[in-house]
Design brief:
By secondary structure, this protein is an all-alpha fold. It is 71% helix and 1% strand. It has a domain at 46-305: ABC transporter involved in vitamin B12 uptake, BtuC. α3 crosses α8 (198-207). The longest helix is centred in the middle third of the chain and has 27 residues, at 256-282. It starts with a helix and ends in a 20-residue tail after the last helix.
């Protein structure tokens, strides 16, 4: 039996039939639907900055580090290793970008961020794959160790440098950006005309052709590459079989521990790149506490996405968008979102009633009515609640999506070589 046949045989029991699977173009349809809904919301509420080119550009910057962290978690968990240490690997990545970026240039900063993330992944792989340490314990330990290690390294390497100190690095040179001038100007004119839906769509496209960081392009390429490698190659089949049934995979010749080890290293590299993005694009230097829990949010986005790249992108975009609205326009834009959330909750309730889930539907009706009442009762969401919005929406979406989630069957299971025997 060939290696590809082996992987196909192993992965077959875990695979579902194509019936009910979303078509490949669903992301485009979903994007157009979101733009249309937000256009209607802008028309009804008068919130002008819901989908401007500036908002979309800021959303991309907020989305990418979460998406990269979630992508790292996807690689690890598809191989059966839970990676709670994404936050710590991101922290290591921020320092790597700060140190290597300042001393050797921006692209060496990118490489340094990935390298530091791989170092965190190496520790997690040795602990979980080689020594069989509980995955959660190992991940939490990495988060704690990374925080202390980076603070110590920063005090050694940045103190005394211009603009540097114990809590931050000197300024890092910017990564190159892409601008397609004529197209950006044409889209800007269309956006300024304020034509329903058309102007909002132009604002979305303008964000992708005006001052677009090369790291954003790299992140999107990595997302597509991950999908292709894990779902369209024999390598991906073998790796996913390690997360579904490692004993069966090993019995058919798959080097289970080798694949798990490689997956965790890749996971760490992606998380490190997420931290590097924060230091080099979202900011201009390394800063203590820069990750702000985005590693955990990336993990939540991965779960929301059902351990698949497309869903992960949607979950990351949701968090990035709500975070951006709170920062750009404060309570007024978030107030407009309350109306959309209330309507979506009621629509979801109707769907639940039609599916026979009376209790869930009733809860959604109550939630939709309550959120609608809040929308009518206030004119602007207070600042403290605005800052909570991304986290609250993440929890709500995870609650809505929990009924369709299916994690890899052997995710988090400690595996020893020879268990198949």
């Amino acid at each position: 039996m060939s290696a590809s046949d082996t992987a196909s045989h192993v992965a077959a029991p875990a695979a579902k039939s194509g019936r009910g699977r979303l078509p490949r173009y669903w992301i485009v349809v979903a994007l157009l639907a979101v733009v249309f809904i937000l256009s209607v919301l802008k028309l009804v509420t008068g919130a002008d900055d819901l989908l401007s080119s500036g908002t979309v550009a800021a959303t991309l910057i907020a989305t990418v580090p979460i998406m990269l962290a979630g992508l790292g978690g996807l690689w690890s968990e598809r191989a059966g290793i839970v990676n709670i240490g994404l936050e710590g690997m991101m922290i290591l990545g921020t320092y790597g970008a700060g140190y290597f970026g300042y001393n050797y240039g921006p692209w060496m900063g990118v490489a340094g961020a990935i390298l530091m993330g791989v170092l965190g992944g190496l520790i997690h792989a040795v602990a979980t794959v080689v020594f069989g340490v509980d995955h959660i314990i190992s991940g939490v330990a990495i988060n704690i160790i990374a925080l202390g290690a980076v603070q110590y390294l920063a005090s050694l390497t940045f103190v005394g440098l211009p603009g540097g100190g114990q809590t931050q690095s000197p300024k890092i040179e910017d990564v190159q950006t892409i601008t397609i001038g004529p197209l950006a100007d044409a889209l800007d004119k269309i956006e300024d005309k304020d034509v329903f839906f058309v102007s909002e769509l132009a604002g979305v496209f303008e964000a992708f052709v005006s001052n677009l960081s090369m790291l954003v392009v790299l992140a999107l390429v990595l997302l597509v590459l991950t999908w292709w490698l894990l779902w369209r190659t024999p390598f991906g089949l073998r790796l996913r079989s390690c997360g579904e049934s490692p004993a069966a995979a090993e019995s058919l010749g798959v080097k289970v521990l080798r694949y798990k080890f490689a997956a965790v290293l890749i996971s760490g590299g992606l998380a490190g790149l997420a931290g590097g993005f924060l230091a080099m694009v979202a900011s201009s230097n390394y800063r203590d506490g820069q990750t702000g829990g985005r590693g955990y949010i990336g993990l939540a986005a991965m779960i929301f996405g059902n351990w698949r790249p497309g869903g992960l992108l949607a979950g990351s975009g949701l968090f990035g968008y709500t975070e951006t609205l709170g920062l750009r326009q404060g309570g007024s834009s978030v107030h407009a979102l309350l109306l959309a959330i209330a309507i979506l909750a009621l629509a979801f309730a109707i769907w639940q009633f039609r599916s026979g889930a009376v209790i869930t539907g009733s809860v959604m009706v109550a939630a939709g009515v309550a959120i609608g009442a809040v929308y009518l009762a206030i004119e602007e969401v207070p600042g403290d609640f605005t800052r909570m919005t991304p986290y609250v929406i993440t929890l709500l979406v995870l609650a809505f999506a929990s009924q369709r989630l299916r994690m890899p069957a052997a995710d988090g299971v400690i595996y020893r070589k020879g268990s198949a025997g």
